[in-house]
């Protein structure tokens, strides 16, 4: 398969346009997704190709963006919604958590609610407390919802295609500092299955489990500790729900040490769930305590000095690796 | 007016009326539709089988009036395997895609965006279907009401918003929850028509619904219909409704939608007393058969707890 260099934003819309060409039921809706091209400029290419009939600007109404999609999906369409900042998910939680996620189960399989909610997460742009959060743990606590958080352009393309084809509602998390990250992306229908983690770097001494923007930071940390003779394996989960427990346990069986890394704040973060899974199902594999490297339990601050103190980076990860390896 | 429609409507009314008597045998939350039947029967009488509806807590009324199967409905209310949702949904969560029923709902005001989105599906496919979102007076104070009606207007969707105003949100009187008398007035804020009808008069509801549905089907956009009505019981089974004025309650009972319907039928000589008795007897028999079916339906297998979370 030939490939081309793209950033994550380009990779996402490349995958989405492939699905829009393939399936007339797929449409995009959200605030400023049309002429403006989306708050991060992702949907512009789809608007150019498919026009306002398939790329629908909405009023500033997050509840109605997800809420109408529940009805549209129940009636057979496949909506792809944009909630420009993940921090606004709170406004949509009833529609996402009580409606979309529960439809299939509540109705005994009688309805399906296929939809993709694309949203941007994360700190690093100086967007402060209400535009910078990583709230993936909220979504992971809702059965019926799938949660995807790619860390590379190729995965972003392959996962958006799978997300659109999936019959469940999928929360598709795009870290805003990743939009300009470049990488090789296979052309055409490149599909990455949901629920399948990927070893981004092989290693033998310690496993780094991560997702989204932390993949890049973990790869940098692994490079740093390599010079000190520590061989770190970087396991990119790519999707949190369904969780690829097998890949996590397989890697820990090899390295016997586990460091879990996420940008979201520590308490109640999804890292706690992964630690519990390994403690429960892989306790005998461990030769050291499980470590979590996560954001502090604070809102995201504005000042660049404070914000960089908040964000998990490769130095913090490397420091945690040294304590166990 | 075709007698056929009236027979269907009155059958729906009778069916709905009889459901309440059996509620005490069930578990969980139960919200009776009794007293509001004319709205479901009147609106549904002008919808096609493939038109969409989104419903609320009292969704059994809409289900039966849209042609749902009382056997499967009762089995669901009892939590049995032959229920619409194989026992997973219960009273507040019954859907039937084949009849365009996109579910009753346990969240007040959730039907509004769902109906709006179903109407978008119709518009995008240009298939001529209409969507109706049913909701109560209390839901008209939720954000979903505002966002949905505004979106439906902006996109000029084939949707009819039907407010069943029974004057109470649980115990809170409408006059304490909003400072207008007619919820239909709010339609003006979204730039489409709002109409008030006697929600206990099935013919009046049908006429208003016919106009709104026709307008929606022709691409004219949404309408808000407000039917003034009264629930014969409390908000849920177990609520004695002591907060209501007994004199007012008695007055509304005299305007029971089924009595009103029967009076209209007899006055216009569209039906004789014997016709009504025959319909009543048929409704009785259908409910008895449904009850019997539900009682004999097996419980779900315990393993079904873990199925249907994620579709194939």
Write the layout of secondary structure elements.
The complex is a heterodimer of chains A (325) and B (312).
Chain A: E1 3-7, H1 8-22, E2 26-30, H2 44-50, E3 55-57, H3 62-74, E4 78-85, H4 89-100, H5 103-106, E5 115-121, H6 136-140, E6 146-148, H7 153-165, E7 169-175, E8 182-186, E9 198-201, E10 206-210, H8 214-226, E11 232-236, E12 239-241, H9 245-255, E13 258-265, H10 270-281, E14 291-295, H11 304-310, H12 314-324
Parallel strand pairs in A: 2-3, 2-4, 4-5, 5-7, 6-7, 10-11, 10-13, 13-14
Antiparallel strand pairs in A: 1-8, 6-12, 9-11
Chain B: H1 3-19, H2 37-44, E1 52-54, H3 59-65, H4 70-77, H5 111-125, E2 131-136, H6 143-154, E3 159-165, E4 168-169, E5 172-173, H7 174-177, E6 194-198, H8 202-217, E7 223-228, H9 246-253, H10 257-267, H11 273-296
Parallel strand pairs in B: 1-2, 2-3, 3-7, 6-7
Antiparallel strand pairs in B: 4-5
Helix pairs in contact in B: 1-2, 1-3, 1-10, 1-11, 2-8, 4-11, 5-6
